[in-house]
Amino acid sequence: MSAIASTAVGRPRLFDEERVLAELTALFWRKGYSQTTMSDIVESSGMHKPSLYRTFGSKEELFAIVLRRYLAERMQMFSQLIAESGSGISAAHKFLTLFEIDAVSERGRDGCLMVMASNELRGTLPGYDFASDYRQQMRQQLSTLVAAAWPGGESEAEFARARTDVLTTYLLGLHVVMRSGASAEEIHEYVQAMHLTVDAW
Amino acid sequence: MSAIASTAVGRPRLFDEERVLAELTALFWRKGYSQTTMSDIVESSGMHKPSLYRTFGSKEELFAIVLRRYLAERMQMFSQLIAESGSGISAAHKFLTLFEIDAVSERGRDGCLMVMASNELRGTLPGYDFASDYRQQMRQQLSTLVAAAWPGGESEAEFARARTDVLTTYLLGLHVVMRSGASAEEIHEYVQAMHLTVDAW
DNA sequence: CAGCTTTACTACCGAGCGGTTTCAAATTCG
DNA sequence: CGAATTTGAAACCGCTCGGTAGTAAAGCTG
Q1: Less CB within 10 Å around the terminal CB: N or C of chain A?
Q2: What pTM was estimated for this model as a whole?
Q3: What's the CA gap between A153 and B34, in Å, rounded?
Q4: What single-letter DSSP state applies at residue A13?
């Protein structure tokens, strides 16, 4: 019933659902869930409240829709970054460099919507364990990067998993750093540190 | 004016301020700032609202008091963990082991109050950049651990800093993992991964 | 005991919250 | 054209939020 394209009949919409969702994603990302009021949502979306409730259900459902959209988008971004990184040890460096570029971008400064949401709403949004999902999927993606960067076959399975796990945890931590208002220089230092670690592997 | 011990004169308090603050720390830690209502605070503290406001000022000031207390407590804990870890490469392993024990404890499951608060309230609590403070102080502490574990003197300054930064970011990420409802087995795997990395350094 | 100070406790408050009702306007289809 | 359907737009609603008055009670000091 929610977030479904309207039928052909009836008065045509004045709003673009995708555009609105992108706008609201940025809003939640910036302010968090609880600190975002329906008034903020109305203002940011340009829609009126009844249209919002008719289209998305409720604030909570709207946030769930935003989260699902974000998760898919984010994983696509990871996938692309990894694809662009190539193979061999340089792939790890390339990936870190690309990630840093995103980190110091305007959006990057807000960290990760998933990490933010999970910290704020752990267990209060029913039926959707987004935080755990995010971590698993991110880990999955990073494992392909690790496989491309350190091709060791079965014999190195233990190390491959360890590298993947450290990278996953490190990136989650970097999200926290990003959201905590770190400067581009600070972020650069944290990324440089991981470059050195990668060389030690 | 707030959180000051009462004078000797007048009706004596029925509540223990330290005990109440400890209780409220746990409450905020569990539920986050926005999701904790004054009713929750009243119930959890056993105090009545006017007493709370007289003693602590407001919800926001109360949270600031809780955060400062927590920060000090937390840094003391880090300091102790590091002191117990000894020196040499085994210090790094010992530290990780001790940290894991805390991570899988009841309190540990909630991650870190500072990380949670910074993700939720970035920039809304005036005049106190707790997230950045926390990261800097944690980094400071970890640098002494690194110095004890890899005594390389001035020549290894660059590596020392990199190890410190990776450890800092990794631990922040682990806090996210902890709060996202990871099982003890998952946490153990993430910590094991860092054990292997430490050996590679 | 009288007077002063501080706390305990009930009741209450305005404001802003998420959510709804209502009706006019715009389009499609018979 | 006119009935049906969907959206736009404004006003409205109950509730819970953070925060206060006002008063009784309990301890010190003289």
Answers
A1: N
A2: 0.92
A3: 48
A4: P
DSSP H helix total and E strand total for chain A: 9, 0
Which of A73, A49, A69, A82 minimizes the C-alpha distance to A3? A69
Nearest residue of chain B to residue A116 (CA atoms): B119
- Contact criterion met (CB below 8 Å) for B146 and B164: yes
For B21-72, write each residue's pLDDT tens digit.
999 999 999 999 999 999 999 999 999 999 999 999 999 999 999 999 999 9
Nucleotide at minimal C1' distance from the B37 CA: D17
How far apart, in Å, are the Cα atoms of B120 and each of A26, A29, A112, B51, B103?
A: 15, 10, 12, 27, 21
Q: Tell me the backbone φ, ψ of residue A150, rounded to 5 degrees.
A: -125, 80
Q: What is the greatest pairwise CA distance in chain B? A: 64
Chain mean position to CA B14:
29
Residue A175's nearest CA partner among A80, A99, A98, A75 is A99
In angstroms, how far is D7 C1' from A59 CA?
A: 20
Which of A84, A72, A77 is closest to A145 using CA atoms?
A: A84
CA distances from residue A125 to A119, A121, B17, B35, B112 in whole angstroms, order as listed: 12, 7, 33, 12, 20
**Per residue in A48-86, pLDDT tens?**
999 999 999 999 999 999 999 999 999 999 999 999 999
Per-residue flag: A122 CB under 7 A of strand C: no
* Nearest by CB: A170 against B122, B170, B200: B170
Q: What is the pLDDT of residues A165-175, one digit of tens each?
A: 999 999 999 99
As given in the structure block, the two tokens for residue B87 are: 């020196």
Which of chain D's bases lie under 7 Å from a protein CB?
A: 4-11, 16-22, 25-29
Nearest nt by C1' to A7 Cα: D6
A74 with A137: CB under 8 angstroms?
no
A3, A68 in Cβ contact below 8 A?
A: no
Contact present, A194 and A96 (Cβ < 8 Å): yes
